[in-house]
Every structure is written in structure tokens, then in C-alpha cells.
Design a protein that fits this description.
This protein is of the alpha/beta class. The protein has one domain: Alpha/Beta hydrolase fold, catalytic domain (Rossmann fold). It is built from eleven helices and 13 strands. The strands form two sheets. An eleven-stranded mixed beta sheet has the order 3-4-1-2-6-5-9-10-11-12-13. Strands 7-8 form a two-stranded antiparallel sheet. β11, α8 and β12 form a beta-alpha-beta unit. The chain starts with about 25 loop residues before the first helix and ends with a strand.
Amino acid sequence: MHITTPDPLPRPRHRRWAMAGPGLATAALAATALVTAATPYPATVPVATSAELPATARTGVKLSFPAPTGTRPIGTVALHLVDRSRPDPLVKSRPYRELMVSFWYPAGKAPDLPLAPQMSPGAAADWDKNSAPALGVKPGEVDWAATPTHARVGAPVDRPAGGLPVVVFASGDGGPRTLGTVLVEELASRGYLVVSVDHTYEADQVEFPGGRVERAVPLPEKLTKKVLARLIRKHTQARIADMKFVLDQLASLDQGHNPDAESTPLPDGLAGSADRTRIGMLGQSLGGSVSAQLLHDDSRIAAGVNLDGMYVGPVARTGVDKPFLQMASETHTRENEPTWKSFWGRSTGWKRELRLTGAQHGSFTDLQALLPQLPGAPKNPATAELIGTIDPGRSVAAQRAYVAAFFDLHLKGRSTHLFNGPDGRYPEVKFIP
């Protein structure tokens, strides 16, 4: 269930959200439309799997992601972080806060290492049973654990002498960190260290080492506007504290410490790889609001991106004075979202607002790449409701181009003409004055 925009995705009564998109493959559609011609990745590669995944899930249709367009091979590692300085803000019986995060980065060649799957086995099994049915996907119909990313598990970090600029990714409310894979991989392939964060007990499911899966706290039976607003504020506050803790752990990592609770061996070169003078935030929906709030509050953040999220909390009234990019779906405007109007009017730094013609709220998640792979998806009205009518390949290409150009400009100091006005390569992108 997505609860942070005026145009939310369908909300089944028995599920937290319907945001995470299945993308069943007619293999032809998305693979042909989305995968770029030039790619440093081989067509057939091993994928990390687990025998613990139920056989019913492992026999389903397999999905695929569009290959990143950057020139760098990428690696990834998942770490278990524990914040013992605070009790869990969402489950009071927990004496400390636990998070799972993934690091994505440009990597040295490591062809013998497996590719990471989008979802870990336990999370995929839970998604198959409890989340996918809200999208009309029957348990076992999709092999959720078999969607390969393009990142080698534990590959050595290929870093420049000055370190890698950092982007921290935040998903929409209720969404696991895995739903931003399309953009996260793209940034890593272009030379960024990307950190994606799961917010435990808010995300539908989070798998910890050993196969333990923690599910989201159930929503209240009566979701009145008052209850919903209070819940969103609670999630926002928890997320802000989570992100600050993650940034603290990034500093610890750069000082040579291993922050992983199990002391999992780190990829060669990961410690000390971050240039912490160049950190950006990227968020979808509620993650976009949190990106703005952290940009306002935390001096460590230099630039931020909001993908179609309303603003929650003080930043809606204060705006920001640092570089900020806002990308919107076709029908989400300052006229129908008051927090956009107040935020934009009070933001005094470099800023651009772009609207993606034909896009819907789910277009800014992996739904855009995966959902069209469902058999019959082009004729399914639910598809347009979730990801609009925009061509999936065009949508992914535009988002990748503008998000990467924004961070290139403000974290790497690379000039770009993309923000000077409409570009004929991306006619779907409209500039909002």
C-alpha cells in the first residue's frame, strides 16, 4: 500500500500496499524494449539462489531488468546494521533498531562471482505469498528470487583516488529497498557508491542473515485521515533517524571499521571508498520527502531528488536551499498537491521540476520495467493505473538520464545541457516553470 501521494496505488484491505510490481515475462517485451545494445555484461550468468526457497516459487516465470547504460561493471554487498543507541521506533518491544542495507558500486571484473538476485530468498518467498497476490499474481506464478541484477556479489570495488560520490536511496512507504534497482544499478554503473536502505517493520518484508524475515507492522483496521497522517509522520521520523545512522556507519566504514553485525567480510576496497564530501539523496514517494528533509537538516547531504512524493513534515513549509530535482507523474501537480506548492515557493537553491508524460506513481519504481513483462499486461487496465501509458523503455531511459545528470552536475561538477530546457531525445519530459 502506498500512502504518501494524492494519487496512491490501489490499496487491498488485507495488504499494506500494492506498490511492488510483479513483472511476469513474456520475455520478449521488456527484454527487447529495455535492454540497451551496448552492455559490459554477458547474456548468461549464474544467479545467487537458495535451496530454502519453496519449490512452488522456484518454478514460476522469471523476470529480467534492463541493463545499466554506464560503462562500469558493478558489485554489491548486503550488510546488517544494528543501532543500539535507540529502541526500535515501530516495535517498542525491540530494544534496538536493526536495518538491512545494500551497497552498490563500480567493480573490478569478477566473472566467476554470481549475480545478486533482486530479492533474497526469504524475502522473495514472503513477497510471493503475502505481497504479490495484491497485484493479481498468484503464489508460485512468478519466481521472485530468480530476477537477476547486474551486480556481482562481493566483487572488489573499483574506485578512483579521491573516492566515489555517494547516493543514498529511499523507497516509497511500505516498499523494500529492492524496488529501486533500475536506478540504483544505473548510478553504480556510472561511478557512484549507492546505499539502499530497508526500513524494518515498515517495509513489507526484510530478510536478515540466517533467513529471518521481519514483516511490516499491520496497518490499523480503520485508516482515517487522522490515523493515516499520524502513521506517515511516525514512518518519516523513523526513516530520518535510520538514514542519519546509516550515514554515521558510512563514516565508520571509511575509518576502517566493519559495521556489519555478523562481521561479514567486506568487498576489497569498500572501506574508505566513499567521498563523504559528495553525498546525495534519492527517494521515491515518501523516500523523496525524506530526501528533502535530510537535505534541509543534515549538512552531510549536498543534493536531493524526489520521485513523485508529497512532502511530510517541516520541509513542506521551509523548502531547501541546496540543489533539488523533482520528477512528477503526469497528473501530479502543484495545483493538486499543496505541499509541492509551498515547498517549491520556499526553496531557494538550484531547482528543476520535470513531469513525465504518460507516467503514473508506480512508474518511478521497478514496476515500470517489470510489470509490462506480465502476460496480457498491455491489455490490463491495472497496468495503466500503476505505471501509466508511457512506453516502459522510454520511461526508464528518461529517468536514468535526468537523475544521473543531476548528480553528475551537483556531486561531480560535470556540466550538462539537459536542464536548460526540453531535449529532443526525451520528448516525454516536460519542464515545469
